[in-house]
Amino acid sequence: MYVTVVLTILLYGCETWTLYRHNIRKLDQFYMRCLRRIAHIQWKDKVPNTEVPQICNLTGIEVLLMTAQHRWIGDVTRMEDTRLPKITFYSELEHGTRSHGGQLKRYKDMLKMNMRACNLPPNELENLTADRSS
């Protein structure tokens, strides 16, 4: 029930989110709190957060987010060139400047970071997503 209802609602549209570390931390806190309640694990049991998903036979929230984003990117790269999501994903701004100081991360920046974390070369995105089964 938790996976089909709560996680589906919580992660609705997560394929297109640009997440920072503090966003992932907040999602993970909620995820762990729910899993601990479901598994009847109290704080005094001293079960680390790394073991809670294993007890519930689930993966971590960050893995769920990365999987959803990689699946969606695969769908986008295999789309026809005339489709709006593909045009938007591969487009670049012609005009405009970026503000001074630390820049907000773009979706593409987060995607490259996630691909590196999974030991996937970001410059081979199209080659990797060409085979749907992999």
What does this structure look like?
The structure is a single chain. The chain is mainly α and 134 residues long. It has one domain. Helix content is 54%, strand content 0%. The model has no long low-confidence stretch (mean pLDDT 88).
Mean pLDDT: 88
**Structural class label:** mainly alpha
Helix count, per DSSP?
Answer: 7
Computed Rg: 18 Å
Number of strands: 0
Query: Which percent range describes the beta-strand content?
Result: under 5%
Give the helix proportion (percent range): 40-55%
Q: What is the first-to-last residue Cα distance?
A: 29 Å
In terms of per-residue confidence, which ranges show pLDDT below 50 for 5 or more consecutive residues?
none
Task: Sum up the overall morphology in one term.
Answer: globular
Task: Kindly give the count of domains.
Answer: 1
Topology of this structure?
Layout lengths: L1 H9 L10 H18 L13 H4 L5 H18 L5 H7 L16 H11 L7 H6 L4
Please give a quick description of this structure.
With 134 residues, this protein is mostly helical.
Features:
single chain, 134 residues, 7 helices
